[in-house]
Design a protein that fits this description.
Helices cover 77% and strands 0% of the residues. The protein contains 3 helices and no strands. α1 runs antiparallel to α2. The longest helix has 30 residues.
Amino acid sequence: MDRDRLENKMITLSVLAALGIAYSTLLYFQPALMGRYPLDGIVGVVLGLYISSHPAANLMDMLFYRRGIRYRFSSRRSVVLWLSLNVLVLLVSGIVVFVGTTRWITRTE
């Protein structure tokens, strides 16, 4: 993988992680972003699944299609940074899906 493409993917992953953290934080401090809990929950679940699709695609490329062998990492440190960023984004997306699901099934009376 070209160094520029790797840097672009790292920036994309960082932005997606920040977006997920921002959405979860907003739902924590606001009673309802869009006026209704189920709508907030649906948006959260869809956003979380979209966020998790990027690191999952990277993992599939590395494991099953052997494209990871051709990645041109400059050092072991960059490999560890790449993998830890993917794991971090997967963790953030799991939190967003969890928060969205709990918001979706919450009863408001």
